[in-house]
Design goal:
Helix 2 packs across helix 3. 70% of the residues lie in helices and 7% in strands. The chain has 87 residues and is mainly alpha-helical.
Length: 87
């Protein structure tokens, strides 16, 4: 009888842990901008080449829509993934 009680407690603990893990996965999001480190990791290039890639993409994005604001060393994630990663 005692073993069945422990089993039900373990099951309830595992269910709670599973729901907490799912919640952590849902709340974990990617930032809106891609930085130099991520570009370098994706392309396997040096930091200076990563900066050049970001600058080129920023110029392309600015040419498509001149009203956009860009940041030095960062590129919009949606544009980056569409232009480079084809996601």
């Amino acid at each position: 009888m005692r073993a069945r009680g422990c089993y039900s407690v373990m099951i309830s603990i595992l269910r709670k842990m599973k729901s907490e893990i799912l919640l952590m996965e849902i709340t974990k999001t990617k930032p809106m901008y891609v930085g130099v480190e991520e570009v370098c990791a994706d392309w396997g290039v040096s930091r200076s080449k990563g900066c050049a890639i970001i600058k080129q993409l920023s110029n392309q994005m600015k040419a498509e829509n001149p009203k956009l604001l860009t940041m030095a060393g960062k590129i919009n994630r949606f544009y980056y993934e569409e232009a480079c990663m084809k996601k």
